[in-house]
Amino acid sequence: MLGIPAKPVPNKFLTIDMDSASIKCLAFFTPENESTEFTSIAPDTKAKIVGVAKHYLEPGVIRGGVIIDIDLVEKSLRECIDECTMSQEESIKDVIFGVSGNLSLNTITTAKITRPPHSPITENEMNSLYSKITRSAFTEIGNEVLRMTGDSDIDMEIITSETVYSKLDNKYVENPLNQTGNVLEVAYYTAFTHSYHVQALQKLAKKLGLKISAVGSEMHTLVNYLKMGKLPHIDCVIINIDNDFTDVGIVFGGGIVSTKALDFGAVDFVNEISQKTGLSFIEAEKFKRTYSYGKLSRTEADVVKSCITEVIDTWLEGLKVVFEEFTGVKTYPSKVYLVGDAAELPDIQETLDKEPWTKSIAFKAPPTYTKLTLRDLQGVTDSTGTLGSLEYVMNASLSKIYMEMHGIE
Protein backbone atom coordinates (compact mmCIF):
# COMPACT_ATOMS: atom_id res chain seq x y z
CA MET A 1 0.00 0.00 0.00
CA LEU A 2 1.02 3.56 -0.58
CA GLY A 3 2.02 5.07 2.75
CA ILE A 4 4.56 5.31 5.55
CA PRO A 5 3.64 4.63 9.18
CA ALA A 6 3.54 7.67 11.41
CA LYS A 7 5.81 7.92 14.45
CA PRO A 8 4.87 7.88 17.23
CA VAL A 9 2.24 5.30 16.31
CA PRO A 10 -1.29 6.55 17.07
CA ASN A 11 -3.99 4.11 18.10
CA LYS A 12 -6.84 5.76 16.19
CA PHE A 13 -7.37 6.12 12.46
CA LEU A 14 -10.01 6.72 9.79
CA THR A 15 -10.91 4.69 6.72
CA ILE A 16 -12.66 6.52 3.89
CA ASP A 17 -14.56 5.21 0.89
CA MET A 18 -15.88 7.65 -1.73
CA ASP A 19 -18.05 7.15 -4.81
CA SER A 20 -20.44 9.20 -6.94
CA ALA A 21 -23.31 8.84 -4.44
CA SER A 22 -21.73 9.19 -1.03
CA ILE A 23 -18.76 9.38 1.30
CA LYS A 24 -18.47 6.73 4.01
CA CYS A 25 -16.15 7.17 6.97
CA LEU A 26 -15.26 4.79 9.80
CA ALA A 27 -13.22 5.66 12.90
CA PHE A 28 -11.12 2.90 14.46
CA PHE A 29 -9.41 2.38 17.78
CA THR A 30 -6.73 -0.29 18.25
CA PRO A 31 -6.88 -1.39 21.91
CA GLU A 32 -3.34 -2.81 22.06
CA ASN A 33 -2.39 -3.91 25.57
CA GLU A 34 -5.24 -1.87 27.00
CA SER A 35 -7.83 -3.36 29.31
CA THR A 36 -11.22 -1.87 28.50
CA GLU A 37 -14.78 -2.88 29.17
CA PHE A 38 -15.22 -3.59 25.47
CA THR A 39 -12.13 -5.78 25.01
CA SER A 40 -13.06 -7.79 28.08
CA ILE A 41 -16.20 -8.78 26.17
CA ALA A 42 -14.35 -9.32 22.88
CA PRO A 43 -10.78 -10.31 23.80
CA ASP A 44 -9.77 -10.93 20.16
CA THR A 45 -10.46 -7.34 19.14
CA LYS A 46 -7.65 -5.85 17.07
CA ALA A 47 -9.54 -2.90 15.60
CA LYS A 48 -12.67 -1.48 17.20
CA ILE A 49 -15.03 0.71 15.17
CA VAL A 50 -15.85 3.72 17.36
CA GLY A 51 -17.50 5.99 14.82
CA VAL A 52 -19.43 5.84 11.55
CA ALA A 53 -20.85 8.41 9.17
CA LYS A 54 -22.23 8.57 5.65
CA HIS A 55 -22.88 11.73 3.64
CA TYR A 56 -24.65 11.84 0.29
CA LEU A 57 -23.04 13.86 -2.48
CA GLU A 58 -24.58 16.15 -5.06
CA PRO A 59 -24.67 14.65 -8.57
CA GLY A 60 -21.48 15.16 -10.58
CA VAL A 61 -19.18 15.91 -7.62
CA ILE A 62 -17.49 12.52 -8.09
CA ARG A 63 -17.80 10.53 -11.32
CA GLY A 64 -16.63 6.96 -11.63
CA GLY A 65 -14.58 7.40 -8.46
CA VAL A 66 -12.78 10.45 -9.87
CA ILE A 67 -13.02 13.69 -7.87
CA ILE A 68 -14.49 16.40 -10.12
CA ASP A 69 -15.29 19.19 -7.65
CA ILE A 70 -12.67 19.02 -4.90
CA ASP A 71 -14.15 21.94 -2.94
CA LEU A 72 -17.53 20.25 -2.55
CA VAL A 73 -15.86 16.93 -1.75
CA GLU A 74 -13.75 18.70 0.90
CA LYS A 75 -16.88 20.21 2.47
CA SER A 76 -18.75 16.89 2.53
CA LEU A 77 -15.76 14.92 3.78
CA ARG A 78 -15.11 17.44 6.56
CA GLU A 79 -18.73 17.14 7.72
CA CYS A 80 -18.57 13.36 7.44
CA ILE A 81 -15.40 13.15 9.56
CA ASP A 82 -16.81 15.57 12.14
CA GLU A 83 -19.91 13.39 12.52
CA CYS A 84 -17.85 10.19 12.59
CA THR A 85 -15.53 11.44 15.35
CA MET A 86 -17.97 13.52 17.40
CA SER A 87 -17.74 11.08 20.35
CA GLN A 88 -13.92 11.23 20.40
CA GLU A 89 -12.12 13.54 22.81
CA GLU A 90 -9.39 14.37 20.28
CA SER A 91 -9.27 14.74 16.52
CA ILE A 92 -8.15 11.77 14.41
CA LYS A 93 -5.69 12.71 11.67
CA ASP A 94 -4.41 9.39 10.28
CA VAL A 95 -6.47 8.25 7.32
CA ILE A 96 -6.56 5.35 4.86
CA PHE A 97 -8.30 5.93 1.52
CA GLY A 98 -9.77 2.93 -0.29
CA VAL A 99 -9.59 2.44 -4.05
CA SER A 100 -11.92 0.20 -6.04
CA GLY A 101 -13.81 0.00 -9.33
CA ASN A 102 -12.15 1.16 -12.51
CA LEU A 103 -9.58 3.13 -10.48
CA SER A 104 -7.87 -0.06 -9.30
CA LEU A 105 -6.04 -2.35 -11.71
CA ASN A 106 -4.41 -5.49 -10.36
CA THR A 107 -1.99 -8.09 -11.62
CA ILE A 108 0.05 -11.05 -10.41
CA THR A 109 3.47 -11.35 -12.01
CA THR A 110 5.42 -14.59 -11.72
CA ALA A 111 9.18 -14.75 -12.19
CA LYS A 112 11.43 -17.79 -12.19
CA ILE A 113 15.23 -17.78 -12.19
CA THR A 114 17.92 -20.47 -12.17
CA ARG A 115 20.75 -19.73 -9.76
CA PRO A 116 23.77 -21.41 -8.09
CA PRO A 117 22.15 -24.19 -5.99
CA HIS A 118 24.52 -24.05 -3.00
CA SER A 119 24.74 -20.28 -2.67
CA PRO A 120 22.40 -18.64 -0.10
CA ILE A 121 19.92 -16.18 -1.57
CA THR A 122 20.99 -12.63 -0.73
CA GLU A 123 18.97 -9.48 -0.15
CA ASN A 124 20.48 -7.91 -3.27
CA GLU A 125 19.37 -10.93 -5.30
CA MET A 126 15.80 -10.61 -4.01
CA ASN A 127 15.75 -6.84 -4.60
CA SER A 128 16.94 -7.34 -8.16
CA LEU A 129 14.23 -9.94 -8.79
CA TYR A 130 11.50 -7.71 -7.32
CA SER A 131 12.70 -4.78 -9.45
CA LYS A 132 12.32 -6.90 -12.58
CA ILE A 133 8.87 -8.08 -11.49
CA THR A 134 7.76 -4.50 -10.80
CA ARG A 135 8.94 -3.30 -14.22
CA SER A 136 7.08 -6.19 -15.83
CA ALA A 137 3.93 -5.34 -13.84
CA PHE A 138 4.10 -1.69 -14.95
CA THR A 139 4.37 -2.83 -18.57
CA GLU A 140 1.40 -5.19 -18.19
CA ILE A 141 -0.78 -2.55 -16.54
CA GLY A 142 0.29 0.06 -19.11
CA ASN A 143 -0.87 -2.25 -21.88
CA GLU A 144 -4.16 -2.83 -20.07
CA VAL A 145 -4.74 0.92 -19.67
CA LEU A 146 -3.97 1.42 -23.37
CA ARG A 147 -6.45 -1.31 -24.29
CA MET A 148 -9.15 0.19 -22.08
CA THR A 149 -8.68 3.88 -22.91
CA GLY A 150 -6.60 4.11 -26.10
CA ASP A 151 -4.29 6.51 -24.20
CA SER A 152 -0.71 5.43 -23.55
CA ASP A 153 0.19 8.59 -21.59
CA ILE A 154 -1.87 7.90 -18.44
CA ASP A 155 0.47 7.63 -15.46
CA MET A 156 -0.18 4.78 -13.03
CA GLU A 157 1.07 4.35 -9.49
CA ILE A 158 1.51 1.26 -7.30
CA ILE A 159 -0.70 1.45 -4.21
CA THR A 160 -0.45 -2.14 -2.94
CA SER A 161 2.12 -4.89 -3.42
CA GLU A 162 2.61 -8.25 -1.76
CA THR A 163 4.34 -11.57 -2.35
CA VAL A 164 1.68 -14.20 -3.07
CA TYR A 165 4.09 -17.14 -2.80
CA SER A 166 7.74 -18.11 -3.08
CA LYS A 167 9.09 -21.47 -4.22
CA LEU A 168 12.53 -23.00 -4.06
CA ASP A 169 13.01 -26.04 -6.29
CA ASN A 170 9.21 -26.24 -6.61
CA LYS A 171 8.62 -26.26 -2.84
CA TYR A 172 6.76 -23.45 -1.06
CA VAL A 173 8.90 -21.37 1.31
CA GLU A 174 7.73 -18.53 3.52
CA ASN A 175 10.87 -16.47 2.95
CA PRO A 176 13.62 -17.57 0.53
CA LEU A 177 16.18 -15.10 1.93
CA ASN A 178 19.38 -16.87 3.08
CA GLN A 179 18.09 -20.23 1.88
CA THR A 180 19.72 -22.32 -0.86
CA GLY A 181 18.18 -23.74 -4.01
CA ASN A 182 18.59 -24.00 -7.76
CA VAL A 183 15.27 -22.65 -9.06
CA LEU A 184 13.64 -19.66 -7.36
CA GLU A 185 10.05 -18.75 -8.27
CA VAL A 186 8.17 -15.73 -6.92
CA ALA A 187 4.58 -14.61 -7.58
CA TYR A 188 4.05 -10.95 -6.76
CA TYR A 189 0.74 -9.07 -6.52
CA THR A 190 0.57 -5.37 -7.42
CA ALA A 191 -2.40 -2.99 -7.45
CA PHE A 192 -2.23 0.27 -9.38
CA THR A 193 -4.31 3.43 -9.56
CA HIS A 194 -4.10 6.59 -11.65
CA SER A 195 -1.48 9.04 -10.42
CA TYR A 196 -3.94 11.92 -10.75
CA HIS A 197 -6.26 10.17 -8.29
CA VAL A 198 -3.50 9.84 -5.69
CA GLN A 199 -2.61 13.51 -6.21
CA ALA A 200 -6.26 14.51 -5.73
CA LEU A 201 -6.42 12.55 -2.46
CA GLN A 202 -3.17 14.16 -1.28
CA LYS A 203 -4.55 17.60 -2.06
CA LEU A 204 -7.80 16.78 -0.27
CA ALA A 205 -5.95 15.50 2.80
CA LYS A 206 -3.82 18.63 2.94
CA LYS A 207 -6.91 20.85 2.84
CA LEU A 208 -8.42 18.91 5.74
CA GLY A 209 -5.23 18.63 7.78
CA LEU A 210 -5.18 14.84 7.50
CA LYS A 211 -2.18 12.55 7.33
CA ILE A 212 -2.48 9.82 4.69
CA SER A 213 -1.26 6.55 6.17
CA ALA A 214 -2.06 4.65 3.00
CA VAL A 215 -4.03 4.48 -0.22
CA GLY A 216 -4.99 0.85 -0.71
CA SER A 217 -6.91 -1.65 -2.80
CA GLU A 218 -10.14 -2.61 -1.02
CA MET A 219 -10.34 -5.95 -2.80
CA HIS A 220 -6.84 -6.85 -1.61
CA THR A 221 -7.52 -5.97 2.03
CA LEU A 222 -10.72 -8.00 2.02
CA VAL A 223 -8.87 -11.05 0.67
CA ASN A 224 -6.22 -10.66 3.36
CA TYR A 225 -8.94 -10.82 6.00
CA LEU A 226 -10.43 -13.94 4.41
CA LYS A 227 -6.98 -15.56 4.45
CA MET A 228 -6.71 -15.23 8.23
CA GLY A 229 -7.37 -18.32 10.30
CA LYS A 230 -8.11 -21.47 8.34
CA LEU A 231 -8.17 -19.98 4.81
CA PRO A 232 -4.58 -18.91 3.96
CA HIS A 233 -4.75 -20.50 0.49
CA ILE A 234 -8.36 -19.71 -0.30
CA ASP A 235 -9.80 -20.13 -3.81
CA CYS A 236 -12.87 -17.96 -4.40
CA VAL A 237 -14.66 -15.34 -6.45
CA ILE A 238 -15.56 -12.01 -4.83
CA ILE A 239 -18.40 -9.94 -6.29
CA ASN A 240 -18.58 -6.47 -4.75
CA ILE A 241 -21.75 -4.67 -5.88
CA ASP A 242 -20.74 -1.17 -4.87
CA ASN A 243 -22.51 2.09 -5.72
CA ASP A 244 -20.76 2.90 -9.01
CA PHE A 245 -19.33 -0.44 -10.08
CA THR A 246 -19.54 -4.16 -9.61
CA ASP A 247 -16.00 -5.37 -8.89
CA VAL A 248 -15.19 -9.02 -9.58
CA GLY A 249 -12.03 -10.54 -8.10
CA ILE A 250 -10.69 -14.02 -8.87
CA VAL A 251 -8.64 -15.52 -6.04
CA PHE A 252 -6.47 -18.64 -6.20
CA GLY A 253 -4.19 -19.80 -3.42
CA GLY A 254 -4.96 -16.68 -1.40
CA GLY A 255 -3.80 -14.33 -4.17
CA ILE A 256 -5.88 -12.11 -6.46
CA VAL A 257 -5.04 -13.30 -9.96
CA SER A 258 -7.29 -10.81 -11.75
CA THR A 259 -10.00 -8.21 -11.21
CA LYS A 260 -12.46 -6.51 -13.51
CA ALA A 261 -15.10 -3.84 -12.97
CA LEU A 262 -18.58 -3.65 -14.46
CA ASP A 263 -19.85 -0.09 -14.86
CA PHE A 264 -23.09 -0.97 -13.11
CA GLY A 265 -23.83 -0.78 -9.40
CA ALA A 266 -26.26 0.01 -6.61
CA VAL A 267 -26.81 3.55 -7.93
CA ASP A 268 -28.45 2.07 -11.02
CA PHE A 269 -30.99 0.20 -8.88
CA VAL A 270 -31.74 3.31 -6.83
CA ASN A 271 -32.10 5.49 -9.94
CA GLU A 272 -34.62 3.06 -11.38
CA ILE A 273 -36.68 3.13 -8.17
CA SER A 274 -36.46 6.93 -8.12
CA GLN A 275 -37.58 7.31 -11.73
CA LYS A 276 -40.49 4.88 -11.47
CA THR A 277 -41.81 6.10 -8.11
CA GLY A 278 -41.03 9.82 -8.26
CA LEU A 279 -39.00 9.62 -5.06
CA SER A 280 -35.79 11.61 -4.63
CA PHE A 281 -32.53 9.67 -4.86
CA ILE A 282 -32.05 9.66 -1.08
CA GLU A 283 -35.67 8.64 -0.47
CA ALA A 284 -35.34 5.85 -3.07
CA GLU A 285 -32.10 4.70 -1.43
CA LYS A 286 -33.85 4.43 1.95
CA PHE A 287 -36.76 2.63 0.26
CA LYS A 288 -34.34 0.11 -1.29
CA ARG A 289 -32.59 -0.46 2.03
CA THR A 290 -35.86 -1.02 3.90
CA TYR A 291 -36.88 -3.47 1.18
CA SER A 292 -33.57 -5.32 1.55
CA TYR A 293 -34.26 -5.76 5.29
CA GLY A 294 -37.75 -7.10 4.57
CA LYS A 295 -39.44 -4.28 6.45
CA LEU A 296 -41.78 -2.96 3.75
CA SER A 297 -45.43 -3.86 3.44
CA ARG A 298 -46.33 -6.45 0.81
CA THR A 299 -47.64 -3.74 -1.51
CA GLU A 300 -44.54 -1.56 -1.12
CA ALA A 301 -42.23 -4.56 -1.59
CA ASP A 302 -44.03 -5.46 -4.82
CA VAL A 303 -43.43 -1.92 -6.06
CA VAL A 304 -39.67 -2.13 -5.42
CA LYS A 305 -39.47 -5.60 -6.93
CA SER A 306 -41.20 -4.45 -10.12
CA CYS A 307 -38.81 -1.47 -10.33
CA ILE A 308 -35.60 -3.51 -10.12
CA THR A 309 -36.43 -6.81 -11.86
CA GLU A 310 -35.47 -5.58 -15.32
CA VAL A 311 -32.38 -3.80 -13.98
CA ILE A 312 -31.16 -6.97 -12.29
CA ASP A 313 -31.52 -8.85 -15.59
CA THR A 314 -29.36 -6.19 -17.26
CA TRP A 315 -26.83 -6.37 -14.43
CA LEU A 316 -26.61 -10.15 -14.77
CA GLU A 317 -25.97 -9.93 -18.50
CA GLY A 318 -23.13 -7.49 -17.75
CA LEU A 319 -21.75 -9.84 -15.11
CA LYS A 320 -21.64 -12.68 -17.65
CA VAL A 321 -19.64 -10.48 -20.02
CA VAL A 322 -17.16 -9.65 -17.23
CA PHE A 323 -16.48 -13.35 -16.61
CA GLU A 324 -16.09 -13.99 -20.32
CA GLU A 325 -13.48 -11.21 -20.54
CA PHE A 326 -11.13 -12.69 -17.94
CA THR A 327 -8.01 -14.06 -19.59
CA GLY A 328 -5.70 -16.70 -18.16
CA VAL A 329 -8.44 -18.25 -15.98
CA LYS A 330 -9.43 -21.71 -17.21
CA THR A 331 -11.93 -22.53 -14.45
CA TYR A 332 -13.45 -20.40 -11.72
CA PRO A 333 -13.67 -21.32 -8.02
CA SER A 334 -17.16 -22.39 -7.00
CA LYS A 335 -17.08 -20.43 -3.74
CA VAL A 336 -18.55 -16.97 -4.46
CA TYR A 337 -18.62 -14.20 -1.85
CA LEU A 338 -21.10 -11.33 -2.25
CA VAL A 339 -20.47 -7.96 -0.66
CA GLY A 340 -21.37 -4.33 -1.18
CA ASP A 341 -24.45 -2.16 -0.95
CA ALA A 342 -26.67 -3.93 -3.52
CA ALA A 343 -25.64 -7.43 -2.39
CA GLU A 344 -28.26 -7.03 0.35
CA LEU A 345 -31.08 -7.08 -2.20
CA PRO A 346 -32.72 -10.52 -1.86
CA ASP A 347 -33.42 -10.47 -5.61
CA ILE A 348 -29.68 -10.54 -6.37
CA GLN A 349 -29.02 -13.91 -4.77
CA GLU A 350 -32.37 -15.28 -5.98
CA THR A 351 -31.41 -14.39 -9.54
CA LEU A 352 -27.91 -15.81 -9.21
CA ASP A 353 -29.33 -19.06 -7.79
CA LYS A 354 -32.11 -19.52 -10.31
CA GLU A 355 -30.78 -18.19 -13.59
CA PRO A 356 -28.67 -20.55 -15.74
CA TRP A 357 -26.09 -17.79 -16.24
CA THR A 358 -23.19 -20.02 -15.22
CA LYS A 359 -23.78 -22.59 -17.98
CA SER A 360 -21.48 -20.70 -20.33
CA ILE A 361 -18.89 -19.96 -17.60
CA ALA A 362 -16.37 -22.60 -16.51
CA PHE A 363 -16.97 -22.94 -12.77
CA LYS A 364 -15.32 -25.96 -11.12
CA ALA A 365 -18.69 -26.86 -9.63
CA PRO A 366 -22.09 -25.17 -9.35
CA PRO A 367 -21.32 -21.94 -7.47
CA THR A 368 -22.43 -21.36 -3.91
CA TYR A 369 -23.01 -17.83 -2.64
CA THR A 370 -22.17 -16.35 0.76
CA LYS A 371 -22.77 -12.77 1.86
CA LEU A 372 -19.82 -11.25 3.71
CA THR A 373 -20.45 -9.24 6.87
CA LEU A 374 -18.27 -7.57 9.49
CA ARG A 375 -18.15 -10.90 11.32
CA ASP A 376 -15.94 -12.17 8.48
CA LEU A 377 -13.27 -9.57 9.32
CA GLN A 378 -11.37 -11.36 12.07
CA GLY A 379 -10.43 -9.03 14.92
CA VAL A 380 -12.76 -6.20 13.84
CA THR A 381 -15.62 -5.33 16.18
CA ASP A 382 -18.29 -2.64 16.04
CA SER A 383 -18.93 -0.70 19.24
CA THR A 384 -21.45 1.62 17.56
CA GLY A 385 -24.01 -1.13 17.02
CA THR A 386 -25.07 0.45 13.71
CA LEU A 387 -23.10 -1.48 11.10
CA GLY A 388 -25.39 -4.30 10.09
CA SER A 389 -25.18 -3.29 6.45
CA LEU A 390 -22.96 -5.02 3.89
CA GLU A 391 -22.04 -1.64 2.39
CA TYR A 392 -19.42 -0.99 5.10
CA VAL A 393 -17.52 -4.27 4.81
CA MET A 394 -15.07 -3.09 2.13
CA ASN A 395 -14.46 0.15 4.01
CA ALA A 396 -13.88 -1.72 7.28
CA SER A 397 -11.47 -4.13 5.56
CA LEU A 398 -9.08 -1.22 4.99
CA SER A 399 -8.22 -1.53 8.69
CA LYS A 400 -6.05 -4.51 7.68
CA ILE A 401 -3.59 -2.08 6.08
CA TYR A 402 -3.17 -0.15 9.33
CA MET A 403 -2.65 -3.32 11.35
CA GLU A 404 -0.07 -4.67 8.89
CA MET A 405 1.79 -1.36 8.84
CA HIS A 406 1.99 -1.27 12.64
CA GLY A 407 2.61 -4.97 13.29
CA ILE A 408 -0.74 -5.68 14.93
CA GLU A 409 -1.43 -9.40 14.56
UniProtKB/TrEMBL annotation:
<feature type="domain" description="SHS2">
    <location>
        <begin position="13"/>
        <end position="226"/>
    </location>
</feature>
<dbReference type="InterPro" id="IPR043129">
    <property type="entry name" value="ATPase_NBD"/>
</dbReference>
<protein>
    <recommendedName>
        <fullName>SHS2 domain-containing protein</fullName>
    </recommendedName>
</protein>
<dbReference type="GO" id="GO:0051301">
    <property type="term" value="P:cell division"/>
</dbReference>
<dbReference type="InterPro" id="IPR050696">
    <property type="entry name" value="FtsA/MreB"/>
</dbReference>
<dbReference type="InterPro" id="IPR003494">
    <property type="entry name" value="SHS2_FtsA"/>
</dbReference>
